[in-house]
Design a protein that fits this description.
mainly alpha; single chain; elongated; 72 residues; 53% helix
Length: 72
């Protein structure tokens, strides 16, 4: 099995994780693995959406505008 180190976990999240682990009689590590397994089992998680089909050839100006619009 592989290992993963997670740094800078906010204290409130660490406390919630510890509470959940205790309620479920798990270690914090096993609780994290359980949560990740549940989250990744949901449909669509980790999958990219289908490509967008444009009816025109995008220009650099159009692409720049689209990038700015997506960041608002």
């Amino acid at each position: 099995m592989s290992s993963l180190l997670i740094k800078n976990i906010p204290e409130n999240i660490r406390k919630k994780l510890k509470e959940q682990a205790e309620l479920n009689h798990r270690s914090m590590n096993k609780q994290v693995v359980f949560i990740l397994e549940q989250a990744l089992a949901k449909p669509g998680i980790g999958q990219l959406p289908p490509p967008v089909k444009l009816k025109f050839r995008p220009t650099n100006e159009w692409l720049d505008k689209a990038k700015r619009w997506g960041r608002q």
